[in-house]
Design goal:
Length: 273
DNA sequence: AAACGACCCTGAAAGC
DNA sequence: TGCTTTCAGGGTCGTT
């Protein structure tokens, strides 16, 4: 599942690929993603100067003169760069042809991702304007999480996965950061001290940064770019995610699996309280 | 305002 | 073996 690190790695690769070239054509092979891809609108990106490529939460924004393309990978999406003559893969839904003969392709089996167009400031777009803080850019993340949680009775794992609170933390990195900070994922968000939230904030930042450096957890067969040569290697650094029944690397007791807030969660009942 | 359930969809895994 | 069923999973939306 693409979470913040996977999206960040994808964004950096897109920056690298789009340098010194422009989009000369857009092929929409299947417009039925999370929201219908509006062909006429998206094609405004053709031959338009791409001014800036950035990430906001799990969204990638390609902003240009005529507006902005907003991309999301959903839970099964990925972006690859190919020769424009290369054979399509199953589930290649949207393709951007570049002036240099390459093609950027969005592949998404489950089609929970999206490619939408914003004519105006993308920050004011309905999908983006209510997003919470960027974890890697908020210097007082611990204090923020503590303050905002005081009247909330939800499990802390759901709380940090709520993109209106803090963006980019999905099921994998929520489980991992809670393990690293010794907090039980089912604990009520309002029953956690400020000190513990500070520790949690530190671990969220650390786990996200480490994952970015290692090319994320779930990316495969991805286009490499100068900063990252290999992807998907963070998988080796996971402590609890997907490891139910295995022994905790800290205390050797058994890692447990439990559905919390409708999401499968992994934790060590001994280390996390 | 917050919390919860439904929904979107396919592929992998489990069941028969 | 092969067909059928079940279910995960991010995020939005509508309802409570």
């Amino acid at each position: 599942m693409p979470e913040l690190p996977e999206v960040e790695v994808t964004k950096k690769a897109l920056e690298s690929v789009l340098k010194n070239t422009s989009i000369t054509a857009v092929n929409i092979r299947n417009k039925q993603l999370r929201w219908p891809v509006e062909e006429k609108e998206i094609k405004k990106i053709i031959r338009s100067d791409i001014k800036k490529i950035y990430r906001r939460g799990k969204y990638i924004v390609l902003s240009c003169q005529n507006g902005s393309a907003i991309l999301h990978l959903g839970m099964s999406g990925s972006i690859g760069v190919f020769d424009c003559n290369a054979k399509y893969h199953k589930h290649d839904h949207v393709e951007f042809i570049l002036g240099n003969g390459k093609a950027i392709r969005l592949n998404d089996p489950r089609r929970f991702g999206c490619v939408i167009w914003a004519n105006k400031d993308p920050q004011k777009h309905r999908l983006i304007k209510r997003l919470g803080v960027e974890p890697l850019e908020e210097p007082n993340l611990g204090e923020y999480l503590y303050a905002k949680s005081r009247n909330r009775n939800t499990a802390v794992k759901n709380y940090i996965m709520n993109s209106n609170v803090v963006v980019g933390v999905g099921n994998i990195y929520a489980s991992e950061s809670l393990f690293r900070s010794g907090i039980n994922p089912a604990r009520s968000s309002k029953r956690i001290s400020e000190d513990r939230y500070k520790k949690l904030a530190l671990e969220i930042k650390k786990v996200l940064n480490e994952a970015i450096k290692m090319g994320g957890t779930t990316l495969r067969n991805f286009t490499y770019y100068n900063e990252i040569k290999q992807v998907g290697y963070f998988k080796q650094k996971l402590f609890v995610y997907g490891k139910s029944g295995k022994n905790c690397k800290e205390c050797s007791k058994e890692i447990k699996e439990r559905v919390i807030g409708g999401r499968n969660s992994f934790f060590c009942p001994n280390c996390q309280t």
